[in-house]
Amino acid sequence: MRTILETFAINEVKQFAIAGGRIEILSCSAAGKISISLQDANGVEITNGFAKDIDAGSYMQPAGGFQRVAITSSVAQDIKFLISNGESGTRSVAGTVAVAGTVSITGNVNVISSDKARTLSNSAFLNYANSGGNAGYLPHNQLWNPNGSGKNLVVESIVVSSGTAQALRVASSAAGGSFPTAQTYGFSKQLGGAAGVGQTRTHNTTAAFIGTLMYNTAVLANTPLVIQLREPIIIPPNYGLIVAGSVVGADAPTTFEYFEE
Predict the structure, then answer these.
(1) What average pLDDT score do residues 29-53 get?
(2) Which of 33, 94, 167, 229 is the most exposed place for a label (fewest CB within 10 A)?
(3) What is the spatial distance between Cα 239 and Cα 140, in angstroms, rounded to a whole number?
């Protein structure tokens, strides 16, 4: 079960490469309607165009599940949704909760989510790479963990966009297989925080593919693809994670979201 919060511009379409058995819209910050397209492993829509003009509280549970989700918002707003494998879910309610009987708490209790704690400890990062748009070459982007860094990179999501519709390959690089061109170290999610050890690197190459294939997907032209991982990918020192495009001369700007530990 995974809960996702995304910010949408007016009439924006966002794609999520997330497999599941049920999707539920938990909340929308504005009054605009949303539409949902669920797709199978071959990219074929299984919602048949019926999931349009829906509100928060709506859910779908198609037979056989789904492999990808596309959401469109008619207005600029934040949309929170849940994807699960079947009947698991949430029925949390904002407001006042009445408890019968006596409840005692001794001492000071401070509850901080692990996500927020990682940001406050300067261990959560975003990092960006783009090797594309060069005539005659295929775009290859890499999140690299330098040898001797002393930390693992725990990748939670990847966002890829492109001006060209194309197939994408997510792969692991061999030990010591860093790409030749260094770009940036990780930007801390705590603004003003120190950079991380993780580094983006790029490679302009005519090779159709570099690395050990982990995952195949595709991106539509000018439509960001969000790869939200069910479990994180862990990059140990001296290894890297690669996102490779398949169209010569195309771009494939890639943002990695991860933390270090």
Answers:
(1) 80
(2) 94
(3) 15
Residue appearing with tokens 């790409």? 179
Residue 102: φ, ψ to 5°: -110, 130
Domains and CATH numbers, the chain: 2-84 (2.60.120.10), 117-260 (2.60.120)
Sort 240 into a burial class: Cβ within 10 Å, 0-12 / 13-18 / 19+: buried
Query: Which tokens sit at 203?
Result: 């490679």
Q: What are phi and psi of 185, to 5 degrees?
A: -85, 160
- pTM score above 0.70: no
Tokens standing for residue 73: 């918002």
Spell out the SS3 assignment of 126-193.
Answer: EEEECCCCCCCCEEEEEEEECCCCCCCEEEEEEEECCCCCEEEEEEECCCCCCCCEEEEECEECCCCC
**Rounded Cα gap, residues 211 and 234, in angstroms:** 16
Q: What is the pLDDT of residues 129-176, one digit of tens each?
A: 998 778 889 999 999 999 999 999 999 999 999 999 999 999 999 888
CA separation for the pair 219, 167 (Å, rounded): 6
